[in-house]
Amino acid sequence: MDRIHTIGTQTDWVVMIVYLVAILLFGSYFSKYNHNTTDFFFGGRRFSWWLIAMSIVATGVSSHSFVKYSAKAWEYGFSSSMAYMNDWFFIPFFMFGWLPIVVYSKIRSIPEYFEKRFSPSARFFVTILQLLYLVGYIGIGFLTMGKAILPLMPPTMSLFGLEINITLMGLIIVIAFVTGAYTTFGGQIAVLFTDLVQGFMLLLAGLMVFIIGIDYVGGWHAFWNLLPTEWKMPLAHYNKPSDFNFVGIFWQDGIAGSVGFLFMNMGLIMRFMSAKSVNEGRKAATFNILFMLPVSAIVVSGGGWVGKAMSMLSNSPIPANTEPDFIFVVVANIIMGPGVFGFVVAALAAALMSTVNTLLNASSAVYVNDIYNPMRIWLKKLKKNDKGNEKRALLVARIATVAFTILGVLAVIPFSSYPTVYEAHGYFHSTLTPPLVIAIFLGVFWKKFTPAGVIATVIGGVSLMVLGAYYPGVLIAPFDHGTPMDPVHPYTYIGALYNTFVCLAVGVIVTLFHKQFTKTVNRIKKYSNRNLIMSVMVIVCAIFFMLVILNIGGVQFLFIASLIMTFLVSMISSYYIKYDPIAQTEGLTVSSLHRAKEMFKGSKLNERDGEIVKVNWNVRKDDEDFVNLSKHEMNKMNAEVGDLIYVSDARKYLGGLKSFHSTIGEPHAEEGIIYISKEHLQNGLLIKGRLLTAEKEM
Amino acid sequence: MPSFFNSWLPFIYLYVVGGIFFLLGMVLIRRVKGIDMRQKKHRFWWKVMIFGYFYFMIIHALLIIAALYW
C-alpha cells in the first residue's frame, strides 16, 4: 500500500520550526539551573505539585501517544480510552508504599534500591533489565515520532543535487539527533520546564482536533449518531479480537503497565523525586490520575474518534490508504487551516520529544549511578560514599545520553514489524515489565523476600518467559481467557498474565524455601570441594539458560531445565550473597516506613501540624547547613531545633524553582526574619528583597 | 445491541479483579502502618483513595449506559 506523503503547507512547516526552536531555547535557558548531577537528574527536590503534575501530563500523554491511541480509536472507538482509566488500583501501594520509600531512602535509581535491599548482584541484574526497559521505551518513542512526522514529508527530497528517499528509519535518525542534543545539554530541569509548556500545548492541540472535528461532522448529535453502538463502549470486547481485547489489555496495561509506569518508570519516578515533599508527590499523582488522565484519554483518542465519524459520512474525506498510525495527522490536516495544523503537529512532535528526553535522562542516570560509579568504586578509583568529581560525572552523563540515543534508534527495528505502535508497545510492556515489577513489588511489600528470590525471579522468570514466547500455544494458552492466538504475534497482551504469573511464582516459591536453601548451602560450605560444586552449578545454569534462549531441546525438556536452573540460581545466590534480613529491610520496606523517615531526618520525627510562615531573609557569614528563625515563627510552625525545613520564594507561580531544604537551628529574637547561609542563597537562587515562605517538612 | 461480552462483563472483570488489587493495597498499608490514621493528612488521603475507586467505576458505568441506551 502506498504511504501518505506531503500533507500540510509551507506555513505549517514555518510554524513547526518556530515552535521547536522556541522550545529548544526555553529548555536551554533553564539548563543554567543545573549545578550538579542532582539538579541534572532530579531537579533538586524542590518543586510544587502542579509543576510536577503538568510535567507528568506531557510525559504520560505523549508516551501513550496521540499516534497509538488515535489508531485504536479509529479502529475500535471509545474503548481506546480504557488504558487511561485503569491506573487507580495500585495507587495505595504507590502513595503509601513506593513513593515514600523512594524519597526517604535517598536512592538515586531503582537498581540502587536493590543493592540496599538485597545485594550488589541483585542490583546488577536489575540494572540490565532496567536499561533494556528504558532503551525499549526510547525506541517506541522514536518510532512514534517518525510515524507522526512521516506523512508531512515528501517521498523524496533534493539536497545539494542529491535525490534522497525519505524513509521512516532515516527520519527517525534525524529526530534522534535533535532530541539527543537537547537532552544532553539540558538535563532534568530543562525537561521539567519545557514539559510545563508542552503539557498545556498538547492538551490544547488534542482538544482543538476533537472539538473542531465534531463541528466538522455536524455537531455532537451528528457525531454521536454516526458511530455504531459497539464503538461507543468505553471498554473493549472481553476477549476478541487478538489485536485489541479487554482482558488482554487489562493484564498488559492495567496491571503490568500501571505497576510498571508507577513503580519502575525511572523517568516518572524522577519527576516525583523532584517534588518538594512526599505529600506534594501524592498531590501530583492524584491530580494526574483522577483528572488529567481522563482528559488525556479524550485528547489522545479524539483524532481517531473524529476520523471514524468522518469515514461514516457519504463523501468521506479520509483517504482509503490511511494507515491507522497516521490517522491523527490525516484528520488534523483535513479539519485545520494552514498554520494551525503546523501548530498541532509541532505540539505533538515536541511532546513526544519530551517523553524521549525524560527517558534518555533516566537512562543516563541509571548508567552513571549503577554502572559508572559502582565500576569506579570496584576499580578503587572512587571511595564508597564519595561523590567524586561532579564535572566529570556530568560529562559522563552527557556522553551516556548520546549512547542511549543511538541504542534507542536501533531498538526501533524490531518494533517496526508490528502493524501499529499500540501493539508494539503492548508487546514491549507484556515482556519487559513483569520480572522487574514483581521484583520491586515483592521487595517493597514483602519483608521476607530474599536476594535468592529476587535473582531467581529475574533469571528463572525470564527463562520461563522466553519459553512462553517460543511455545505460546502450550504455556500461555491456559491463561488466555479465550483470546484468539495470532500466529504472527501470539498473545501480544495476555502474555503479560503468564509472564507476571511465572515471575511471581518463582519469587514466592524460592523465598518460601529460603530455610531449606540455607541449610543445604551450609552443608555444602563444609565440603572441601565446595568451590568445585559451585562452579559446576554456575556452568550448568549458563548451559541451561543458553539452551532456553536458543530454543534447543523441545518444550518439556526446556521447561524442566528452567526449573532446575531456577533451583540452582537460588542455591548459588544463597551461597554467595551475605544478607542481613534486619538491617537490609530497615527503612526499605513498607513495614518500616516510620524508620525510613527517621533515617531520612537523622533524628526523632516531629509530625505535629504547623503553619507556613512568611519571612524576610538575611545571610549569615558561615556556610553551615541550618537556618535560624525567631521563637515566634517556630511556635507558629510547631517546629523544633533539628526539624527539616523547606524555604521558598513566596511567589507561588515559580513552583519552587527558587527554594532550598535545610535544618532548623537555634532560634533568635528578630520576628519575621530567617537567617540563611551563603550556600542556601546560591542553591536557592534567591533574589534580594523578595519575601520567603518557610514550611516545616518533618 | 452489543453482547454481555462487549458491555458489562469487561466492567465487572475490571472492578472485581482490579478491586481485589486495590483492596489488598488498602488493607496492607493500614496493617503495616504505611498510612497513619492519627494524622489529618493521612485520613484525607484514605478518603481520596476510596473516592477514586468509585469515581472511575461510576464514570465507566455511566459511559456504558450512555452507549447502550442514549
Tell me what you see in this structure:
The complex is a heterodimer of chains A (698) and B (70). With 698 residues, chain A is mostly helical. Chain A is built from 26 helices and seven strands. Chain A has a five-stranded mixed β-sheet, covered by helices on one side. In chain A, strand 1 and strand 2 (162-165) form a beta hairpin. In chain A, helix 8 crosses helix 13 and helix 21 (514-526) crosses helix 23 (555-576). The radius of gyration of chain A is 27 Å and the shape is globular. The mean pLDDT of chain A is 85. With 70 residues, chain B is mainly α. Chain B has one domain (4-69). Chain B has two helices and no strands. Chain B has helices at 8-31, 40-69. Chain B is elongated and about 50 Å long. The N and C termini of chain B lie close together (12 Å). Classes of the chains: A mainly alpha (698), B mainly alpha (70). Chain A binds chain B through residues 78, 85-86, 88-93, 95-97, 100, 224, 229-230, 232-240, 246-247, 250, 254-255, 279, 282, 286, 289-290, 294, 445, 590-591, 593-594, 607, 609, and chain B through 1-2, 5-7, 9-11, 13-14, 17-19, 21-22, 25-26, 28-29, 32-36, 39-42, 45, 48-49, 52-53, 55-56, 59-60, 63-64, 66-68, 70.
